[in-house]
Amino acid sequence: MDAGVLLSRARGVAGVSQRELARRAGTSRPTVSAYEHGRKSPSVQTLSRLLAVLGYELVAVHAVTWSQYPMGHGRTGWVASGLWRLPIGQALATVELPVHLNWSAPGRTSDLRDHRQRARVYEVVLREGAPGDVSRYVDGALLVEAWSDLVLPRAVRTAWQPVIDAAMHCEGDHVLVSTSQVTSTIAVGEAS
Predict the structure, then answer these.
(1) What radius of gyration, in Å, describes the C-alpha atoms of the chain?
(2) Residue in 82, 111, 80 with CA at minimum distance from that of residue 97
(3) CB 44 within 8 A of CB 76
(4) Judging by DSSP bridges, how do beta strands 109-111 and 75-80 pair with one another?
(5) Cα 149 versus chain centre, distance
(6) pTM
(7) CA–CA distance, 130 with 134 (Å, rounded to integer)
(8) Can you name the residues that pair with 176 across neighbouring β-strands?
(9) Which residue in 20, 26, 147, 173 is deepest, having the highest Cβ count within 10 Å?
């Protein structure tokens, strides 16, 4: 997403006009319009200031990449380069996994607030899921917390163990990453 689209979406979610944003930020409405339409590119400092006026913070986050690993019997699994955080509502939701993940018990719902149910969901998703599935259902901090309780095939545990170890040996959130506050908030705002 480029700076203009990000600024436009943040402004829309905040319910602020270009004129009002310009007034609050000490710039002109034509300048805000030029940023939003890609005719001008704001510096990082300027974009940060404009977003701050709208109540957002510009945050750089580590990009998680995915690699395949062999699971045996011709199957492959996916492992991430690092861990991420989900919005609380998503991390602790009641979920019904799609049939391609939970083919043995279709239609079963799981309450991710319950440690045991969350552990079972994580086992299924880590074993059967593609990157989109894993990043949708698995929260990095909760995965670390549940790791020793998960019953996983050796190949899955071996592939993910270095990621868990890296998260366990870091200070703060240097390995656990989250999506940008602006992107998360905009996504929530657009859904409503």
Answers:
(1) 20
(2) 111
(3) no
(4) unpaired
(5) 24
(6) 0.69
(7) 6
(8) 83
(9) 147
Identify the CA nearest to 144 among candidates 114, 118, 181. Answer: 118
Higher model confidence: residue 104 or residue 172? 104
**Residues 95-150 pLDDT 10s:** 999 999 998 888 999 999 999 999 999 999 999 999 999 999 999 999 999 999 99
pLDDT tens-place string over residues 53-67: 999 998 887 789 999
d(CA 152, CA 126): 8
- Concatenated DSSP letters of 122-183: HHHHHHH--HHHHHHH--HHHHHHHGGG----HHHHHHHHHHHHHHHTSSTTSSEEE--HHH
User: In degrees rounded to 5, what are phi and psi of residue 27?
Assistant: -135, -170
For tokens 């049939």, what's the residue? 99
Reported residue count of the chain is 192
Instruction: Give the separation between CA 30 and CA 94, rounded to whole angstroms.
Output: 46
Q: Which domains does the chain have, with CATH numbers?
A: 3-58 (1.10.260.40), 66-179 (no CATH)
Q: Which amino acid is at 105?
A: A
Phi, psi of 177 (to 5 degrees): -120, 160
The CA distance from 12 to 29, in Å, is: 15
